[in-house]
Protein backbone atom coordinates (compact mmCIF):
# COMPACT_ATOMS: atom_id res chain seq x y z
CA UNK A 1 0.00 0.00 0.00
CA UNK A 2 1.37 3.38 -1.03
CA UNK A 3 1.15 5.73 1.96
CA UNK A 4 1.13 9.13 0.33
CA UNK A 5 0.67 10.93 3.65
CA UNK A 6 3.75 9.34 5.20
CA UNK A 7 5.77 10.12 2.09
CA UNK A 8 4.55 13.72 2.12
CA UNK A 9 5.41 14.27 5.80
CA UNK A 10 8.88 12.79 5.26
CA UNK A 11 9.51 15.11 2.31
CA UNK A 12 8.23 18.14 4.17
CA UNK A 13 10.32 17.33 7.25
CA UNK A 14 13.40 17.16 5.05
CA UNK A 15 12.58 20.61 3.68
CA UNK A 16 11.68 21.98 7.15
CA UNK A 17 8.11 22.66 6.07
CA UNK A 18 4.66 21.88 7.34
CA UNK A 19 1.68 20.85 5.22
CA UNK A 20 -0.99 23.21 3.98
CA UNK A 21 -4.19 21.38 3.03
CA UNK A 22 -7.15 23.29 1.58
CA UNK A 23 -10.69 21.91 1.71
CA UNK A 24 -13.45 22.25 -0.86
CA UNK A 25 -16.82 20.61 -1.38
CA UNK A 26 -16.72 18.49 -4.50
CA UNK A 27 -19.21 19.84 -7.01
CA UNK A 28 -19.16 23.42 -5.72
CA UNK A 29 -20.34 25.37 -7.62
CA UNK A 30 -20.71 22.56 -10.18
CA UNK A 31 -18.73 19.40 -11.01
CA UNK A 32 -16.78 20.89 -13.92
CA UNK A 33 -15.68 24.03 -12.12
CA UNK A 34 -14.95 22.04 -8.97
CA UNK A 35 -12.30 20.02 -10.79
CA UNK A 36 -10.69 23.21 -12.11
CA UNK A 37 -10.74 24.74 -8.61
CA UNK A 38 -9.02 21.68 -7.13
CA UNK A 39 -6.30 21.88 -9.77
CA UNK A 40 -5.83 25.59 -9.02
CA UNK A 41 -5.27 24.77 -5.34
CA UNK A 42 -2.62 22.17 -6.15
CA UNK A 43 -0.84 24.33 -8.69
CA UNK A 44 -0.76 27.17 -6.13
CA UNK A 45 1.14 25.01 -3.65
CA UNK A 46 -1.31 22.82 -1.71
CA UNK A 47 0.46 19.79 -0.26
CA UNK A 48 -2.70 17.66 -0.17
CA UNK A 49 -6.44 18.07 -0.62
CA UNK A 50 -9.36 17.45 1.70
CA UNK A 51 -12.53 17.04 -0.32
CA UNK A 52 -16.06 17.09 1.03
CA UNK A 53 -18.86 14.95 -0.37
CA UNK A 54 -21.93 17.14 -0.64
CA UNK A 55 -24.51 16.26 1.99
CA UNK A 56 -27.91 17.71 2.88
CA UNK A 57 -27.30 17.84 6.65
CA UNK A 58 -23.61 18.54 7.37
CA UNK A 59 -23.94 18.93 11.14
CA UNK A 60 -20.24 19.65 11.81
CA UNK A 61 -20.09 22.44 9.25
CA UNK A 62 -20.92 26.09 9.62
CA UNK A 63 -22.98 28.21 7.21
CA UNK A 64 -20.19 28.80 4.69
CA UNK A 65 -19.62 25.13 3.97
CA UNK A 66 -23.33 24.32 4.30
CA UNK A 67 -23.95 26.79 1.48
CA UNK A 68 -21.30 25.04 -0.62
CA UNK A 69 -23.03 21.69 -0.02
CA UNK A 70 -26.29 23.23 -1.17
CA UNK A 71 -24.73 24.68 -4.31
CA UNK A 72 -23.19 21.34 -5.20
CA UNK A 73 -26.42 19.40 -4.64
CA UNK A 74 -28.39 21.98 -6.64
CA UNK A 75 -25.92 21.46 -9.49
CA UNK A 76 -26.74 17.74 -9.48
CA UNK A 77 -23.62 16.54 -7.66
CA UNK A 78 -23.73 12.83 -6.78
CA UNK A 79 -21.16 10.26 -5.65
CA UNK A 80 -20.45 9.10 -9.19
CA UNK A 81 -19.41 12.65 -10.06
CA UNK A 82 -17.11 12.72 -7.02
CA UNK A 83 -15.36 9.54 -8.17
CA UNK A 84 -14.94 11.04 -11.62
CA UNK A 85 -13.33 14.19 -10.19
CA UNK A 86 -10.97 12.35 -7.86
CA UNK A 87 -9.97 9.95 -10.64
CA UNK A 88 -9.01 12.89 -12.83
CA UNK A 89 -7.08 14.49 -9.98
CA UNK A 90 -5.24 11.24 -9.30
CA UNK A 91 -4.29 10.99 -12.97
CA UNK A 92 -3.00 14.57 -12.92
CA UNK A 93 -1.21 14.31 -9.56
CA UNK A 94 -0.06 10.72 -8.90
CA UNK A 95 1.65 11.51 -5.57
CA UNK A 96 -0.87 13.95 -4.11
CA UNK A 97 -2.56 12.80 -0.88
CA UNK A 98 -6.34 13.14 -1.25
CA UNK A 99 -8.81 12.66 1.58
CA UNK A 100 -12.59 12.72 1.75
CA UNK A 101 -14.59 14.30 4.55
CA UNK A 102 -17.98 12.59 4.64
CA UNK A 103 -20.96 11.85 6.84
CA UNK A 104 -21.96 8.33 7.81
CA UNK A 105 -25.14 8.31 5.71
CA UNK A 106 -23.05 8.74 2.57
CA UNK A 107 -21.03 5.66 3.49
CA UNK A 108 -23.97 3.56 4.60
CA UNK A 109 -26.29 4.29 1.69
CA UNK A 110 -24.40 1.82 -0.48
CA UNK A 111 -22.59 -0.05 2.31
CA UNK A 112 -19.15 0.65 3.74
CA UNK A 113 -17.44 -2.07 1.73
CA UNK A 114 -18.77 -0.77 -1.60
CA UNK A 115 -18.06 2.84 -0.61
CA UNK A 116 -14.42 2.19 0.26
CA UNK A 117 -13.96 0.07 -2.87
CA UNK A 118 -15.21 2.94 -5.02
CA UNK A 119 -13.06 5.46 -3.16
CA UNK A 120 -9.94 3.36 -3.65
CA UNK A 121 -10.69 2.83 -7.32
CA UNK A 122 -11.03 6.61 -7.72
CA UNK A 123 -7.62 7.29 -6.17
CA UNK A 124 -8.70 8.43 -2.69
CA UNK A 125 -6.20 7.93 0.15
CA UNK A 126 -8.27 8.60 3.26
CA UNK A 127 -11.78 9.04 4.58
CA UNK A 128 -12.85 11.02 7.64
CA UNK A 129 -16.42 10.31 8.79
CA UNK A 130 -17.29 13.50 10.63
CA UNK A 131 -20.26 12.23 12.64
CA UNK A 132 -18.90 8.89 13.89
CA UNK A 133 -17.22 9.21 17.34
CA UNK A 134 -13.80 7.66 17.82
CA UNK A 135 -15.17 5.03 20.19
CA UNK A 136 -17.65 3.85 17.53
CA UNK A 137 -15.32 3.71 14.52
CA UNK A 138 -14.31 0.06 14.86
CA UNK A 139 -17.12 -1.07 12.60
CA UNK A 140 -15.44 0.70 9.67
CA UNK A 141 -11.82 -0.26 10.19
CA UNK A 142 -11.80 -3.68 8.52
CA UNK A 143 -13.60 -2.50 5.37
CA UNK A 144 -11.37 0.56 5.04
CA UNK A 145 -8.19 -1.48 5.49
CA UNK A 146 -9.37 -4.09 2.98
CA UNK A 147 -9.49 -1.37 0.33
CA UNK A 148 -6.30 0.43 1.41
CA UNK A 149 -8.20 3.47 2.67
CA UNK A 150 -6.81 5.28 5.71
CA UNK A 151 -9.35 6.19 8.38
CA UNK A 152 -8.69 9.73 9.57
CA UNK A 153 -9.80 10.31 13.15
CA UNK A 154 -10.82 13.52 14.91
CA UNK A 155 -9.18 14.57 18.19
CA UNK A 156 -10.42 17.38 20.42
CA UNK A 157 -8.76 19.03 23.43
CA UNK A 158 -11.38 17.32 25.62
CA UNK A 159 -10.47 13.80 24.42
CA UNK A 160 -9.91 11.32 27.25
CA UNK A 161 -7.44 8.45 27.26
CA UNK A 162 -9.93 5.92 25.86
CA UNK A 163 -10.61 8.20 22.91
CA UNK A 164 -6.91 8.83 22.29
CA UNK A 165 -6.20 5.11 22.36
CA UNK A 166 -8.99 4.52 19.83
CA UNK A 167 -7.51 7.23 17.61
CA UNK A 168 -4.09 5.60 17.82
CA UNK A 169 -5.50 2.13 17.19
CA UNK A 170 -7.76 2.93 14.25
CA UNK A 171 -6.39 6.15 12.79
CA UNK A 172 -4.23 6.24 9.69
CA UNK A 173 -2.78 8.99 7.52
CA UNK A 174 -3.12 11.91 9.92
CA UNK A 175 -5.16 12.98 12.94
CA UNK A 176 -7.58 15.87 12.44
CA UNK A 177 -7.18 18.06 15.53
CA UNK A 178 -10.22 20.26 16.10
CA UNK A 179 -8.91 23.53 17.44
CA UNK A 180 -12.12 24.77 19.05
CA UNK A 181 -15.67 23.77 19.90
CA UNK A 182 -18.59 24.35 17.57
CA UNK A 183 -18.78 24.02 13.79
CA UNK A 184 -16.43 24.93 10.99
CA UNK A 185 -15.95 28.57 10.10
CA UNK A 186 -13.49 31.40 9.70
CA UNK A 187 -11.98 32.53 13.01
CA UNK A 188 -9.85 35.64 12.66
CA UNK A 189 -8.75 35.49 16.32
CA UNK A 190 -7.99 31.78 16.62
CA UNK A 191 -5.36 30.94 19.20
CA UNK A 192 -4.04 27.49 18.39
CA UNK A 193 -2.49 26.46 21.70
CA UNK A 194 -2.82 22.69 21.88
CA UNK A 195 0.71 21.56 22.64
CA UNK A 196 -0.46 19.25 25.41
CA UNK A 197 -2.91 17.46 23.10
CA UNK A 198 -0.18 16.98 20.50
CA UNK A 199 2.08 15.45 23.15
CA UNK A 200 -0.70 13.10 24.29
CA UNK A 201 -1.37 12.01 20.70
CA UNK A 202 2.31 11.39 20.09
CA UNK A 203 2.60 9.51 23.36
CA UNK A 204 -0.05 6.99 22.34
CA UNK A 205 1.30 6.56 18.81
CA UNK A 206 -1.46 8.37 16.90
CA UNK A 207 -0.87 9.52 13.31
CA UNK A 208 0.60 13.02 12.81
CA UNK A 209 -1.63 15.90 13.90
CA UNK A 210 -3.08 18.38 11.42
CA UNK A 211 -5.02 21.36 12.82
CA UNK A 212 -8.43 22.30 11.43
CA UNK A 213 -11.44 24.55 12.22
CA UNK A 214 -10.94 28.31 11.97
CA UNK A 215 -7.69 28.27 9.99
CA UNK A 216 -7.99 31.39 7.86
CA UNK A 217 -4.70 33.27 7.74
CA UNK A 218 -0.95 32.60 7.63
CA UNK A 219 -0.47 33.31 11.33
CA UNK A 220 -2.85 30.44 12.13
CA UNK A 221 -0.61 28.11 10.13
CA UNK A 222 2.46 29.31 12.00
CA UNK A 223 0.67 28.82 15.34
CA UNK A 224 -0.30 25.27 14.36
CA UNK A 225 3.29 24.36 13.53
CA UNK A 226 4.57 26.04 16.69
CA UNK A 227 2.20 23.87 18.73
CA UNK A 228 3.70 20.75 17.16
CA UNK A 229 1.23 19.99 14.36
CA UNK A 230 2.48 18.74 11.00
CA UNK A 231 0.28 21.21 9.19
CA UNK A 232 -3.10 22.90 8.89
CA UNK A 233 -6.34 22.48 6.97
CA UNK A 234 -8.30 25.52 5.79
CA UNK A 235 -11.88 25.01 4.68
CA UNK A 236 -14.26 27.88 5.23
CA UNK A 237 -11.68 30.48 4.20
CA UNK A 238 -11.26 28.69 0.86
CA UNK A 239 -14.97 28.08 0.31
CA UNK A 240 -15.76 31.71 1.17
CA UNK A 241 -13.51 32.79 -1.69
CA UNK A 242 -15.29 30.45 -4.07
CA UNK A 243 -18.65 31.89 -3.01
CA UNK A 244 -17.38 35.44 -3.55
CA UNK A 245 -16.41 34.73 -7.17
CA UNK A 246 -19.11 32.42 -8.47
CA UNK A 247 -19.47 34.40 -11.69
CA UNK A 248 -15.81 35.17 -12.39
CA UNK A 249 -13.45 32.24 -12.98
CA UNK A 250 -10.45 34.46 -13.65
CA UNK A 251 -10.85 36.40 -10.41
CA UNK A 252 -11.44 33.17 -8.49
CA UNK A 253 -8.28 31.60 -9.89
CA UNK A 254 -6.25 34.68 -8.90
CA UNK A 255 -7.78 34.86 -5.42
CA UNK A 256 -7.26 31.18 -4.64
CA UNK A 257 -3.73 31.22 -6.01
CA UNK A 258 -2.83 34.20 -3.81
CA UNK A 259 -4.43 32.70 -0.71
CA UNK A 260 -2.87 29.25 -1.04
CA UNK A 261 0.55 30.71 -1.87
CA UNK A 262 0.52 32.82 1.29
CA UNK A 263 -0.72 29.98 3.49
CA UNK A 264 1.88 27.61 2.08
CA UNK A 265 4.64 30.17 2.59
CA UNK A 266 3.70 30.23 6.30
CA UNK A 267 4.59 26.52 6.59
CA UNK A 268 8.25 27.16 5.80
CA UNK A 269 10.29 27.32 8.97
CA UNK A 270 12.90 30.03 9.52
CA UNK A 271 16.57 29.15 9.78
CA UNK A 272 16.27 28.69 13.54
CA UNK A 273 13.76 25.88 13.13
CA UNK A 274 10.37 25.31 14.66
CA UNK A 275 9.76 27.08 17.95
CA UNK A 276 8.98 25.23 21.15
CA UNK A 277 5.37 24.35 21.89
CA UNK A 278 4.22 27.49 23.67
CA UNK A 279 0.86 26.50 25.15
CA UNK A 280 -0.47 23.69 27.30
Describe it.
- With 280 residues, the chain is α/β, with parallel strands linked by helices.
- Helix content is 46%, strand content 13%.
- The protein has a nine-stranded parallel sheet with strand order 5-4-3-2-1-9-8-7-6.
- Helix 9 links the parallel strand 7 and strand 8.
- Helix 2 packs parallel to helix 4 and helix 2 runs parallel beside helix 12.
- The longest helix has 17 residues.
- The radius of gyration is 17 Å and the shape is globular.
- 48% of the residues are buried.
- About 2% of the residues have low confidence.
The end-to-end span amounts to 36 Å
**Overall form:** globular
| SS-derived structural category | alpha/beta
Helix content: 40-55%
Percentage beta strand: 5-15%
Number of helices: 12
Rg, Å, rounded: 17 Å
Number of separate strands: 9
Give the SSE order as H and E letters.
Answer: HEHEHHEHHEHEEHEHEHEHH
CATH homologous superfamily (4th level) name of the domain at 4-150 and 229-265: Aldolase class I
Largest sheet entry: 9 strands, parallel
Ranges with pLDDT <50 over ≥5 residues?
Answer: 181-187
CATH top level class name of the domain at 4-150 and 229-265: Alpha Beta
Level-2 CATH architecture of the domain at 4-150 and 229-265:
Alpha-Beta Barrel
What is the spatial order of strands in the main beta sheet?
A: 5-4-3-2-1-9-8-7-6
CATH fold type of the domain at 4-150 and 229-265: TIM Barrel
Integer average pLDDT: 91
Amino acid sequence: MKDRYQELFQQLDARREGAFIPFIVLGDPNPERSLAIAKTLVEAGADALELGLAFSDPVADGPIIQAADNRALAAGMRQEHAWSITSKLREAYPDLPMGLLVYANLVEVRGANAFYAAAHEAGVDSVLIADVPSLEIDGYTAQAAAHEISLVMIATPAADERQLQAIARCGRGYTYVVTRTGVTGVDEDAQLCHGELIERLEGCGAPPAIFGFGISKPDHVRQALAAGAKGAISGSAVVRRIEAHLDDDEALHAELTSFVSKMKAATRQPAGGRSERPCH
